[in-house]
């Protein structure tokens, strides 16, 4: 009888703790995916400086979410969509999607943050120049639990800042 009672208590505690644990795992996965994407951006910036050529990350909407791929300028006029399609600006890595590496995470917007998760002006290219500057803008990452992160790209320095949306306050806060 005591063993049944102990097993019942353990089952109740597990039932209470499991949803909170799964939510924490989802938040951690979304944060890791955001840091991964920001590190890919830093790598593209370093490639541009090292190659003395413009390097750009292209974000494309696919049926299963957004994919991204890095291209290098092949003719000295910057990375352009028409040059990518004409195979003048060549890829330097394979296409990837956050959801492939981090299940349940995608480049997307949750709630009232708007509808466009790739905000780079009128383009889907995030360009980095040999001087280290970049296209200014924001890329939004959403977790399965609707946690929302933003990668802010600062144009004059080409550096990134990661922010997290705190729903209860309605504000974006810097993360480290």
Brief write-up:
The chain has 3 helices and 10 strands. The strands form 2 sheets. Strands 4, 5, 7, 8, 9 and 10 form a 6-stranded antiparallel β-sheet that branches. A 4-stranded antiparallel β-sheet has the order 3-2-1-6.
Word description of this protein:
The chain is of the alpha+beta class and 176 residues long. It has a single domain (2-174), classed as minor pseudopilin epsh fold. 34% of the residues lie in helices and 28% in strands. It has three helices and ten strands. The protein has helices at 2-51, 81-85, 98-101; strands spanning 55-62, 65-72, 90-91, 106-107, 118-119, 125-128, 137-142, 148-153, 160-166, 171-174. The strands form two sheets. Strands 4, 5, 7, 8, 9 and 10 form a six-stranded antiparallel sheet that branches. The chain has a four-stranded antiparallel sheet with strand order 3-2-1-6. A hairpin with a 6-residue loop joins strand 8 (148-153) and strand 9. The longest helix has 50 residues, at 2-51. The chain is elongated. The model has no long low-confidence stretch (mean pLDDT 89).
Beta fraction of the residues? 25-35%
Major sheet attributes: 6 strands, antiparallel
CATH architectural name = 3-Layer(bab) Sandwich
Helix content: 25-40%
**Secondary-structure content class:** alpha+beta
Element order: H for helix, E for strand: HEEHEHEEEEEEE
| End-to-end CA span | 51 Å
What general outline do the C-alpha atoms trace? Answer: elongated
Give the count of helical stretches: 3
CATH topology: minor pseudopilin epsh fold
